[in-house]
Design brief:
Length: 478
């Protein structure tokens, strides 16, 4: 499975680090600009208030003596100063009547509705505006002396253009520095991510190779800290896994060899057991003829021939069992096979006093199987069921389609099979019958495997079911 690029740890780590750096740089830059703006605003207010302390001292004497020209000249000199941040100035008498007004440029300003707030200290009629940040500050200052009290008022318009020029210059510098820091930080983050992720990617590729069977794969142990330790642990694990797999393969080969020898021994034992009885009969006839000094003839010869035929049949049957004969797959109606087997076993079923119940699915399409081999499985299942039941029992045989597989079930109403015997039911030569060979179910199981299916047995105290399960579209070349 190949991960999409956006799910790779290198991409996610790099993006995360870059996001943290960018967000941090932007946050720091925003805080710096905000603090600088507040400082510049505070500084401009202080300068305005300082001017508001100097001008009233210069104005109070000409105001008291009604020297309008002196007042005019004083305001004009401040307005025309190159370094002045004064945009306009207005002088009012103690009654709030306008005496003199001068301005550097035409600026719309609201009339003063009340002078009460400015009788004791300067008041900003308009502070820094949020809607129009370039609007000038409007400062109203009382003109007073300790002896005479308030003699008039001075209104000053303070320009904020210098403040915004300074802010604009600072903003450029801050964003340039922030961009440089972000770029350098991102490059450093990518380099660091690469250094951290490279050993992990090597480890991932090595793990894939190990998963594909390339045991003993090693990677360079040049990581830092826990990553280097992980690489070392992986190499140790890979080496140990290679040794373990080699040991398992060796043990498996020995086990297969042992199983073959065991199977050969079991096969030989079963074959010897089957041959022993007819050989004993032949031996007894020969010994009797020798003791009585008579020649073998008539019925004795017929018995010997029959026993020899029995030996030949037994040997042939065991050889067929030992070999996996080639299957002849053809399109076959499974229900027809069931009917054929029931027709063959019909007389024996009637003689046993067993009732037959058929539940065949007529909608099943033909299945590609080896008909003779499937008949052998069905025949073995039916005969085993007959032997397990007493007269009056019921044999049920059904065909159906279950989860895309064909299922043929043979169910009896016998006493069932014990759990201990059920574990060995498909073992060659395992039998609980005195005259059985223990090869019937073993051969049936092998046939089902050759068809790509399986043979299951379900049993309890009320009966046993043999389930033949075959893939419904199994190819003919299997």
């Amino acid at each position: 499975m190949v991960l999409p690029w956006y799910n790779r740890i290198a991409v996610r780590l790099s993006v995360s680090i870059m996001a943290v750096i960018v967000v941090t740089a932007l946050s720091v830059a925003t805080l710096i600009l905000r603090d600088e703006k507040h400082i510049l605003q505070k500084d401009l207010r202080i300068r305005a208030l300082q001017l508001g302390e100097i001008l009233p001292r210069q104005i109070i004497e000409p105001l008291l003596y009604d020297e309008d020209f002196a007042l005019y000249s004083l305001l004009q000199s401040y307005l025309e100063s190159k370094e002045s941040f004064l945009l306009y100035g207005e002088i009012y008498n103690e009654l709030g009547e306008l005496i003199i007004a001068r301005e550097r440029e035409s600026i719309t300003r609201e009339p003063i509705t009340s002078f009460k707030l400015a009788r004791k200290q300067p008041v900003f009629l308009r502070d820094f505006s949020e809607t129009d940040p370039k609007q000038p500050l409007d400062l109203l200052i009382p003109i007073s002396s300790k002896q005479l009290g308030v003699a008039g008022y001075l209104r000053l318009g303070i320009s904020v253009q210098s403040l915004f020029k300074t802010l604009h210059t600072s903003r450029k510098k801050v964003w340039v520095v922030t961009s440089l820091i972000a770029v350098i930080g991102i490059l450093a983050a990518l380099w660091m991510a690469r250094e951290l992720i490279s050993p992990v990617l090597l480890l991932n590729r090595a793990a894939h190779r190990v998963g594909a069977g390339d045991f003993g794969t090693a990677i360079p142990e040049n990581g830092v800290g826990e990553i280097g330790e992980l690489a070392s642990t992986f190499n140790t694990m890979s080496h140990q896994l290679k040794e373990l797999v080699a040991a398992i393969r060796s043990a498996q080969e020995n086990l297969v060899r042992t199983e073959k020898l065991y199977a050969l021994g079991e096969f030989s034992t079963g074959l010897a057991h089957e041959i022993k009885n007819p050989l004993t009969s032949i031996k007894m006839l020969i010994q009797r003829a020798e003791e009585q000094e008579e020649s073998l003839e008539g019925e004795d010869l017929e018995v010997i021939v029959e026993e020899l035929d029995r030996i030949d049949y037994t040997v042939s049957r065991f050889l067929r069992t030992a070999r996996q004969s080639e299957m002849a797959f053809t399109d076959t109606d499974i229900n027809s096979l069931v009917e054929d087997v029931l027709a063959i076993t019909g007389p024996k079923i009637e003689k046993s006093g067993i009732r037959i119940s058929k539940k065949l699915d007529k909608t099943l399409a033909p299945l590609r199987v080896d008909g003779n081999s499937i008949k052998q499985i069905l025949m073995n299942g039916i005969l085993n069921a007959l032997q397990a039941m007493n007269p009056g029992g019921e044999l049920t045989i059904s065909t159906s389609l279950v989860d895309g597989n064909l299922q043929c079930t043979i169910t009896d109403t016998g006493c069932g099979i014990s759990k201990e015997n059920l574990k060995h039911i498909f073992d060659p030569f395992f039998t609980t019958k005195e005259d059985g060979t223990g090869m019937g179910l073993a051969v049936a199981w092998n046939i089902a495997q050759q068809h790509g299916g399986r043979l299951d047995i379900v049993s309890n105290h009320s009966g046993t079911s043999l389930l033949l399960i075959l893939p419904y579209d199994y190819p003919a070349h299997c």
